[in-house]
Write a structure and sequence with these properties.
Endonuclease III, domain 1, alpha+beta, about 400 residues, single chain, disordered N terminus, four-stranded antiparallel beta sheet, Nucleoside Triphosphate Pyrophosphohydrolase, 3 domains, binds iron/sulfur cluster, four-stranded mixed beta sheet, about 35% helix
């Protein structure tokens, strides 16, 4: 019988000396000192082929049904895989599904998407957040048409040359759409690897190690299915707070389960305190009950999106005279009570809302300004933050309202 023996010497300090030994419990060896010993079971070492095979068998029975996933035995559509992977960056599956369906219905091919107006793509994306992704999505569709004749390239290297496709997304598309052997590591995969191998080093320091562990298990065959299987395992069984080890196809290999530390992994370095930034947003009305909108600069937060004019967002609160310097037109401004709060990835934002009436719309000082009827403004595909501003002023969404935008 194979065991790990813990030596405990009587009458002196404890000595722990793990070793492997063959022994027969009815005929123990003659120990040089009097000892007590316990036997520990050892987790089966994760053998790449066994791990991958067990997981794929589980996946064939339990795979999640997703609108972008090919049915078993069918080839995946690269356009659907790419679109879903871009949408899923920083966003949950549940949030992405309706957007994916909407995009596929409106632009069923990459050529259709490439030919769409940027404003239409941005408006259809509104609410999904991280708007740089929408701009890159559109540019990527256009480049795929112009440089690859409308067919997505099949290698990680070529995919990386397209806008909005980083190392993770390139690996995921190459694996899932083209069945290339690529190492696909997202947060789910990191968690599963940390537990399977009981990696106690905290993230993000452990990233390289976890990637190497993921690489060591990635099979040559069915690597697209394998990538999706690990993601599914992380999303449905090896979940962040309560891993369901009893149902896990990797339970027999899992070191964290054996040690009883699964829910504690992966460890994370202490979070830095989220900073708060402040700004003033201007709700500028004209005599026709229209509100002023501007197109934000293409780079930066909410880049390229329609928005109400604001000051910069900075750590210090704005004094009235400072904020007035950023007003889009001359007006007598009245601050509304309260603030609009919104949390971005790296900071928390608090916006004061100032309401003012333009004496003459010709004075709008911003080159890229438009006016929109107040009652329809929430149907223009504004980003969530700006929807919050509209709600703060008291404008509610009307799903069927027709929107009208006219240049200032
Ligand atoms: S056994 Fe538990 S901790 Fe280990 S991989 Fe499976 S679900 Fe995660």
């Amino acid at each position: 019988m194979l065991g790990v023996v813990v030596f405990r010497e009587v009458g002196s300090s404890t000595v722990r000396r793990p070793c492997c030994a063959l022994y027969n419990k009815d005929d123990p060896p003659h120990w040089p000192v009097q000892v007590t010993f316990e036997r520990y079971s050892v987790a089966a070492q994760p053998k790449p082929r066994n791990c991958a095979q067990d997981l794929l068998t589980w996946y064939d029975r339990h795979r999640r049904v997703m609108p972008w996933r090919a049915l078993p035995g069918k080839s995946p559509a690269p356009y659907a895989v790419w679109l879903s992977e871009i949408m899923l960056q920083q966003t949950t599956v549940a949030a992405v599904k309706p957007y994916f369906m909407k995009f596929m219905a409106r632009w069923p091919t990459v050529a259709d998407l490439a030919a769409a107006a940027t404003d239409d793509v941005m408006a259809a994306w509104a609410g999904l957040g991280y708007y740089a992704r929408a701009r890159n999505l559109h540019r990527c569709a256009q480049m795929t048409v112009s440089q690859f004749a409308g067919r997505f390239p099949g290698t990680e290297q070529e995919l990386l040359s397209l806008p909005g496709i980083g190392p993770y997304t390139a690996a995921a598309i190459a694996a899932i759409a083209f069945d290339q052997r690529c190492v696909v590591v997202d947060g789910n995969v990191e968690r599963v690897m940390a537990r399977l191998h009981a990696v106690s080093e905290p993230l993000p320091r452990a990233k390289k190690k976890l990637h190497a562990l993921a690489a060591s298990l990635t099979p040559q065959d069915r690597s697209g299915d394998y990538a999706q299987a690990v993601m599914d395992l992380g999303a449905t069984i090896c979940t962040p707070k309560s891993p369901n080890c009893a149902q896990c196809p990797w339970a027999k290999f899992c070191a964290a389960r054996k040690q009883g530390i699964a829910a504690d992994l992966p460890r994370k370095s202490p979070k830095q305190k989220t900073i708060t930034r402040h700004g003033v947003v201007f709700w500028a009305l004209d005599s026709k009950k229209r509100v002023l909108l501007v197109r934000r600069p293409p780079k930066g937060l909410l880049g390229g999106m329609l928005a109400f004019p604001t000051t910069l967002w900075r750590p210090k609160k704005w004094t009235p005279s400072e904020a007035c310097k950023a007003q889009p037109l001359k007006s007598k401004w009245t601050p509304l009570p309260g603030v609009v709060s919104h949390t971005f990835t790296h900071f928390h934002l608090e916006l004061e809302v100032w309401v003012g009436r333009a004496v003459s719309t010709a004075k709008a000082s911003l080159a890229d300004a438009t006016w929109a009827a107040v009652e329809s403004v929430v149907n223009l595909g504004l980003p969530n933050l700006m929807q919050k501003v509209a709600r703060h002023v008291g404008v509610q969404a009307r799903p069927q309202a027709k929107s009208r935008v006219r240049r200032a």
